[in-house]
Structures are given as structure tokens and as C-alpha cells.
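Help wanted!
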Amino acid sequence: MKNITSKERINFAIQRIIQDRPPIFLLFSYWGAKHNNICVEEYFKNPNLVGRTQIELQREFKHDCYYTFYYASLEIEMMGGKSYFKEYAAPVVSDLIVKCDKDVTKLKIPVFENNKVSKKVGQTINYIKKNGDSGIPIIGVVISPFSLPIMQMGFSNYLNAFVNNEELLNKLFKYNTKFTLAWSKYLIESGVDSLVYFNPFASRSLSSKTIYERFGQSIDKEVRDNITVPLIYHTASASISEIIDIIIKNGFNGCCISKDDDFELIAREINKDFLLIGNLNGLEIVKNSIENVKVDIDLLLSNYYKYGNIIISDNHGELLWNTDSTMLQAIVKEILEYD
Amino acid sequence: MDDKYLVYIDIFIDNLLKDVSDNSLKQIVDEVINLFGETFFLNTFIVVALDNLGKKWSTKSISLSELYFTSLKCEKIFKSFLLINKSVVSKNLENQNIGVITYKDNHFLGKQLLKFCLNSNAYNFYEFEDHLDDDQIIEKIFELDLKYIFVSVLMYDSANMLGNLIKKVKGIKEDTIFIVGGAPFRLDKSLYLSIGADYTEDTVQKSISILSKLDGGNIIS
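Answered by r_m:
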């Protein structure tokens, strides 16, 4: 087979056409700081460095995407909140920005072009567009309006609100949906080719069926209906099986599979043009021997590559700090040499 | 005591999960108390119910939010009795040497579940402020002479960083016991050992059971 670009390879996968090899997504976010031998906070202060690092890492590992995700709490920073940085780990939210009903009304949709936080991501995307390979897709990330309250309110306060303050939740979901759509639009205009839609709270492992069907499902549909690029549903390593039918019905273009899901069953039963991403366990990549991970890859390829619509990736949505580059080289080599 | 009460545990849990009204729940509680006594209800029945809920969650029969809501209700029931009569609960209330920490994180759900269960098991505990650095945590541990430290962690990298804190504390006071929990420890069963912690369990109630064994106490009166 002639050399094909990453974009072509992914398009083939969407159409379930078996190609030279399955696409590989190595999702480097804060790992880029390790690559540059600097701390995480320093790394994300420099959008051009983030862009350059994506290009360098893609050249080094030959995988099939540029990943412009910084960290989840970045969206909270855009709303006026702050992140708490740890030297060698993904940052988390430092202060809760929604503590009472009034706080919701104070939330404004940022002007993303001018917001000092969001425009860093725009600059990273621009850098990649200018200096990267145009045959490689640029992937952006947005957090679902249904999962954002975990960071805005704190998880327990969010859950309590389902019992005692539905009014606040409805207002917050409305704001968040507007935010997510406007943020997506900005990312698309900046040049991303597709978006990952992080929604761990939709997973049956976290929220109940009742909560998701009552609140989450319609939010997902509104977001999907109003975003123009392919949208991949991601539950950040939580199970997706119980909602996958709804996700497909709502028009999402693919999803990430968790270790708790039956990959075989999902791959066999889905008969639409729908991408399945996974199913490497980020912790095992850190802990296991290269030989064991190679066995996992071989198993994954021999069982599922025949379905055509598989993209190999970790199932958490970002590689852990302790991930060894030798291990990543071995993973890629195993896939490149798969016959 | 025979196992007759187990049938009522199933009914109780079923009703907790169905989100029935407080009144309906009270009827079941009253029936159990009539049959087995108030002391048994508070010291055994709720503890077993929490343990069963934890097991359901660890085997993925219920979601994290369902675990949260049902644990919250158990705590509420327990506290309502505690207000009326403290003497029916066991000696655990005398314990003052337990600390509860959420480490490098702002999700707090794990800590909240732990608090529900500690309250429902009648343990007193000190809750650390959030986002303290290692030195501040260590200072508090020694200032309050805490012996049993429960740590809730969400991220894998935070779990690894916790190893440094444990090393520092044990370097000064070797018999400090760290009981750790959270997603990284459930996914990686040997992680707690590699960071120098003493115990981990899949569910909060099981973690607290470790405490009762360690303390030589028996929460079932």
C-alpha cells in the first residue's frame, strides 16, 4: 500500500476500510513538560513550546495526531477560577467558583480571542498549523457541560444539588452549554480538525442512569447538534457500554472504550461508521514490562483490527508522567510492524 | 444474633437506592429496631448496610453517585439517633487520633464518603484543610498526635507524590498508620505498598473495618 497520511488513515478507519495499519493516538498533554525537562506550570505558560513539543513528539513517535489538550481545569481558569499546579502531575482546580446560586449568574462567556487563558490554546493550534504536517489532524478538547460542575462546585456539592438545588443545576447547565459551544467554535476557528468531548460523569460508573437520562442526555444532544467537526465521546477511562447506544443515536462520531467495557462485544455490535478508540491502560503502560505490553497490543490487533474502525490509544485521555518513552517506542513499533 | 437481619439489610438497601421518601425509610428503620433493638441497628445494621453498598460499588452494580446518596442517607439516620441518645453507640466516639486528608486534589468525594462512614461508625476524626503542603500536613499530624491517617487520592501522579509524605512522617514516627484509598489504588493493587502506605481497601467501609481491628476495638457491641 502506498504511503498514506494520518488524516487519510483515520478517514479509512471511519469507513471501516482496513489500511496499512490502525491509527495510533499518543495523547501527550502534561507529559510534554517531561520531554522539555521543565515543570508542568512552566510548560503550559508557553503556547509555542506546547505546539513545538507536539510536533517534535509526533516526529519522534510517528503517531497520528497533534493533541492540543492542556489540562481539564484550564476551562475553569477561563471562567475566572484558578488551577493548582503540582510539579510533575496534571494540575487540578484550586478554588471552587460556584458555591451558591449567585455565583452562577456572575459567570460570563469569555471572549476567547482575548481571554489570556483560552488564547494560549489558540496560539498552540496556530503554531502547529504553521509548522506541523498538514496531513496530521489537530485534535482539540472540550469538557462536557454535564461534567464541568464537578470542577466548578466540587463533586459532593454537585451531587447534593441533584437532591436540593435543581434550579441551580439547570442554570449552570445552561451556562455551561453556551460556554462549551462557544469554546468549541473558537477551537474550530483556530484550526482543530476534530474535538474530543470529555464527559466522565455520563458514565454509569459515576452518575446513575436516572441522572444521566434526565439531565445529561439532552445536553449531549444539544452540543453534538451544534458542533461542525467530528466529535469523539470520552469518559476518561470510565465505562461507556451502558450509554453507547445513546451516544451513537445523538450523532457522535466515536468514543473511547474503557477497560471495564467488553471491547469485543461493542466492536461486533456497532455496525455504523463509528470510531472505537482504546484500549490501552495508561497504568499498565507505566508498570508493565515491554514484553507484556507487546502481548496486549498483539491481542488488541488480532481481535479487533478486522473491524477496521479502531484507533489505538490509552483509555484515560492523557499519558501519565511516569510513562517511559522506550515503552511508547515499543508500542508504536509493534503496531507499525503488525502484519 | 442470627442472620435474620440480613433480609432487612437487602430491603433497606433496596429502598435507599429507590430513593423512597424519608417516611418510608423510617418505617423500615422502625421495624428493624422493633425486632433487633436500637443498639444493634446503630452498631451493626448500618455498618453492614454500608459494607454491602461498598461491595455493590466495587463490583460495579451501583454507580459512585448512588453510593454517595445512599451513604449520605445512612449518615443522616445515624446522626438523628445520635442526637437523641449517645450512649447506644460504641466506644469509638472516644477516639481522637484519626486524620482524614484529600491529597493534592479538589474533588473531595472520597473524603466525603469517608466522613459519612466514619460518622456512621461513630468515630471522631480530624479533617485536614484542603491543599496543605506536605510540611503543613506533617506539622498537624504531630501537633494533634494523630496515629491513623486516611488519605483519599484521585490522580495516579498524586498517589506517587504521597509516597514522599508517608516517608517523612514514618521517618519521625514510625508507628503512624496510613490507610489510603481512591481510584489509583483500586486500579493498581500494589501501589499502596510501593508508596509505603500500610493499608488500602476497595471500599470505604472496609477501610474503616481495618481501623477497628487495629485499634483493638470492636464496633459491634
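OP: Thanks! One thing I noticed: Chain B touches chain A through 27 residues (CB under 8 Å).
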